[in-house]
Amino acid sequence: MEQKNKTFNIYCDESTHLPNDGCPYMIYGYVSVASNQIKMIREQLKAIKTKYAFNGEWKWTGIHDKTYQMYRELVEYFFSVSGLNFRAVVVDKSHIDESRAEYTYNDFYFRMYFQLLHHKTDMAALHNIYFDIKDTCSQMKLHKLKDILKYNASIGNFQFIRSHESVFLQLADVLMGAINYKLRIKTGNIEGKVVAKRRIIEYIESHSYVSLTCTSPLSAQKVNLFYISLKH
After folding, report:
1. Residue 49 in this model has a pLDDT that exceeds 50
2. For position 161, what pLDDT does the model report?
3. Helix (H, G, I), strand (E, B) or coil at 228
4. pLDDT class for 177, splitting at 50, 70, 90?
5. Which residue in 25, 21, 66, 33 sits closest to 171, CA to CA?
6. What is the pLDDT of residue 120?
7. Which Pfam families does this chain map to (predicted)?
8. What pLDDT score does 3 carry?
C-alpha cells in the first residue's frame, strides 16, 4: 500500500434502519477524526463528561431538560474543533421496493455504507473504519463491506467496536439523532415535544449553515448530508 500523508479514523453508525421500527427514514453516518488529534479530542470529550459527573453513554435519547447543558457543550465542542467532521446519508424508507432484485433492506445496508464511505474519502489519505457492533451478523457484514470497498485504496483497517468504548461513536449517535428527530417532526411522525432536543437541532443548523432535512452542498465539510433519491 502506498504511503499516505494523512490518516483519519472514521466511526460509523446507523439509525432507524429496520423496516418495522416506525420511523420514516434510515440514516447511516460517521464522525471523522484526524488521527494526530484523536488522543487530545478523546480526553477533552471525556472531560465534558467529568464536568457533569456523567458516567454513561451519550445518546440522542438521553437529551432532556436536565441533560441539555451537557449535550449543548458536546455539540459546541464538535463545532470548535477542526479535526472533527460528520457525514450522513439518508433515505426515505417508503421508497424502498423490496420486490426489486438487490433492493431489500439488507441490500441497503451495503448500498448506504458504500455511498457513505466511498464518495467522500480523500484518496490522498488513509481511513481506518470503525463500526458499532450490533448483532451476531456483524462479522459477516464486515467481510462483505470489505469486499465492496476493496478497490478504494484510501481505506485501510475495518474493525468493530462497542459504542460504550468510544466517545466518537456516541457523538455520531447524537448528531444522527438530531437529523432523525427533525425529519420525524417534518413528516408528522412525532410532535417533537422535547424542547431540549429542538434547541440542540437549532444549534447544529445555525453553526453548520445547512438544513438537516436536505442534501448539503458538496463543499460542506463540518456537516455533510446526502439524501438518496430512489424515485424513478
Report:
1. yes
2. 87
3. strand
4. very high
5. 33
6. 63
7. DUF3800 (PF12686)
8. 53
| Residue 126 included in any domain | no
Nearest to 64 by CA among 197, 206, 201: 197
Query: In terms of DSSP H, where are the helices of the chain?
Result: 38-51, 68-80, 105-118, 138-148, 167-186, 195-208
> At 57, which CATH number?
3.30.420
Total domains, the chain: 1
Per-residue pLDDT of 84-133, as tens digits, reads 999 999 988 888 777 776 667 777 777 788 888 876 667 788 889 998 87
Q: Which domain holds residue 183?
A: 4-108+161-225
Task: Look up residue 190 and give its amino acid.
Answer: I
Q: Is the pLDDT of residue 147 over 70?
A: yes
As to burial, measured by CB atoms within 10 angstroms (0-12 exposed, 13-18 middle, 19+ buried), residue 101 is exposed
- In this structure, what C-alpha cell is assigned to residue 134? 450490533
In-domain check, residue 170: yes
- At position 172, the amino acid (one-letter code) is A
In-domain check, residue 78: yes
- Cα separation, 25 vs 130, in Å, equals 23
Report in angstroms the alpha-carbon separations of 26 from 117, 129, 206.
16, 20, 24
Instruction: Return the C-alpha cell found at 229.
Output: 433519491
Q: Is 130 within a domain? A: no
Residue 48: what pLDDT?
98
Q: Comparing C-alpha atoms, which of 104, 107, 86, 115 is closest to residue 228?
A: 115
Structural contact between residues 149 and 155, judged by C-beta atoms closer than 8 angstroms = yes
Contact 72, 203 (CB under 8 A): yes
Model confidence, pTM: 0.91
199 phi, psi to nearest 5 deg: -70, -35
